[in-house]
Structure prediction request, 444 residues.
Amino acid sequence: MPGKAAKIELTDLMHRILQGIASSRTIGTAIITRAKIIQMAFLKHSNQTIGEQLECCRETVGMWRRRWRDSYAALLSLQFAEPKAAFRQAIRDCLSDAPRCGSPGKFSPEQIVGLIAIACEPPEQSQRPVTTWTGKELADETQKRGLVESISDSHVNRILREVDLQPHKSQYWCNTTEKDPELFQQQVQAVCQTYLEAGERHRQSGTHTVCVDEMTSLQANERCDKTKLPLPGQTAKEEFNYIRHGTVCVTANWDVVAGQLLAPTLSETRDNHDFANHIEQMIATDPTANWVIVLDNLNTHCSERLVRLIASQLNIDQSTLGVVEKYGNLKDMQTRRAFLSDLTHRIRFVYLPKHSSWLNQIEIIFGVISRRVMRHGNFTSKDDLIDKLKRFMVYFNETIARPMNWTYTGRPTRNTPNQRPRTWREIRRPAKPWEKVDLVTGKL
Prediction:
C-alpha cells in the first residue's frame, strides 16, 4: 500500500519565486520541473497526476515533495532573516541535485589538519621573520616540514577559506584586568542602569546624565597638494605628503537623554587642571542641576583638583577633605574615586570597569568625528583644525545626533551559532576532511 504524500506548504513569497523559476528560460530544466512539482503538489494533485503531466515517475515526485517538506522550516526562517536575492538562491539550492563528494581528495585529513595547525602558529615559531602568514609561505612551510610533497598557494588559500581562517588579519582586543568577575558584572550593571534610568531622572529632577572622555592627539596635517575631486568612474585622489602643524585634544560631553554634544573643550593639553576646568565649564551650563557623569578610570578623572572642584560645587568645607598621600578623601586615587562616586552628592561620577571604554557612549561619537572630520581632513593650522571641529559639532547636533538605543546585555553578540533549521541539502552535505577529526584525540 503506497504511503501518504508529503504535505506542501508555501508562503506568498515562496509561491512567487517558484512561479518565476518555473517560467524562466535561463535555469536548467531539472530545476524548472522540480519547481512545477512543488507548485502542483501545493494544489493537492497526486504524485501520479503530477508525474504524468511533467513526464517523470511518481517516485521522483514523492522524493522532491519530501525534500521540500523537510526544508520548509529552514526556508521560512531564511525568508525573514535574509535579503530577497539570498532567499531566492536558497530555494534554488533546495531544488538542486544532492551534494556529492566528488573525486577523492589529493591530501589526507591528517595533512589538511596539519596545514591548518601551522596557520594557527606564529610565523616566528618556524624561524620566519614575519608577523603573519601568506598562502605562499604556508605552502612552503608544509613542504619544508614534510607534510606534503607539493601544494599550490591557491589550494592553501582555498582550504583556509573553507575553515574561515584568516591568518593575515587581526583586530585589537583587551580583556578586563578585574580579578573578581562578580565585581566586574556589578560595575557593568551600574553603568547600564545609569543609562536606563537617565530619562526618568531627567523627568523627575532635571538630572543631566553625561558621558565624558578625551579624544587625544588629533593631528593638524596639511596636505602638500589639493585633493582631486572624484569624476564618473574615478575616485578622489589625495596627496600623501603633508606638513604637521601640531596636535589638539578634544574633551567632549554626550548628553544621554538629549542626544547632544554639550560644552566641548578643545585644547593642546589634557592634565588634571584641564579636565577639572572642563567639568567646571560643563556644570556652569546648569549650575543648580543634578549631574551624573560617566567616565573611565584615567588618573586625571579622579585628581585632587577635581575633588576640590566638586567639593566647592557642593559647599563642602575644603579643610575636611584631608591631605594627599596622608589621610582623608584626598589620600589616594581610591579614596578620591569613592568621594566622587558618592550617591548622596548632587554631582557624582560613575566609573567604568577597567579596559571597558566601549561602555562609554561618547566613544561612538568620537568614531563619527574620526570618520567625518579627521580621515580626509586638510588643516592649515591648529586653529583651522579647532575651527573645523567646532563647526562639525554644531552641524552634528543639528542634523545627526540623537539619543542612543543602548542594547548591551552582557551576552556575546558575535560568533554565536546559527540555530535555524537546516535544509535537506545542508543536512546531506558531505563532511570535509578536517570535520572528521576528533578535536580531543586528533584522530579520525
Observations:
- Residues 109-170+431-436 form one domain.
- The chain has 15 helices and eight strands.
- Strands lie at 208-223, 242-255, 260-261, 265-267, 291-295, 322-323, 327-328, 347-351.
- The chain has three domains: 12-94, 109-170+431-436, 181-399.
